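Reminder to self: tokens first, then the designed residues, so the page reads top to bottom the way the pipeline ran.
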């Protein structure tokens, strides 16, 4: 049986956007598991994601205050369809990230992270896959806002797709 995954980070609601876009909410509601790699900013978004997600896994980010830090861990770990996931908001500089993360998360197959708002999908020499979904609300230096989807199936992560969100008019 396969599991539909959706990856978010750096939503910054309501500072960077009033809320998430309707097409993203549709994708969230269609996913079996939603990952959020921090920088929620407001607990109201956590409440709504908990309500509208079949299963939500989240961590806090550097812009998340005491209320979110009380409800979310710094690091989350879970196994889905035989794939060992870990998630943290910050991984440090891009240079040396793969080696550093492999050392910090030796028991993970996939590490989900955020912070930079820059989409990232690489697999290191030791096999750790690093995923950053970018941001669905604050593109910074990227051409568009983004999130990621994938399917976990019998120990394989497949159909990983960076989903662009069109610029609002």
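Designed residues (169 positions):
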């Amino acid at each position: 049986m396969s599991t539909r995954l959706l990856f978010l980070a750096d939503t910054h609601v309501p500072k960077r956007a009033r809320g998430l876009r309707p097409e993203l909410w549709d994708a969230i509601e269609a996913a079996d598991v939603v990952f959020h790699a921090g920088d929620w900013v407001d607990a109201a978004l956590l409440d709504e994601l908990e309500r509208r997600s079949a299963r939500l896994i989240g961590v806090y980010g550097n812009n998340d205050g005491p209320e979110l830090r009380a409800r979310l861990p710094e690091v989350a770990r879970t196994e889905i369809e035989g794939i060992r996931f870990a998630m943290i908001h910050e991984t440090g500089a891009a240079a040396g990230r793969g080696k550093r993360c492999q050392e910090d998360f030796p028991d993970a197959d996939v590490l989900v992270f955020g912070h930079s708002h820059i989409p990232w999908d690489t697999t290191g020499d030791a096999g750790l896959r690093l995923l950053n979904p970018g941001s669905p609300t604050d593109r910074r230096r990227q051409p568009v806002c983004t999130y990621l989807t994938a399917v976990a199936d019998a120990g394989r992560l497949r159909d990983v797709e960076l989903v662009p969100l069109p610029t609002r008019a």
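The longest strand covers residues 156-165.
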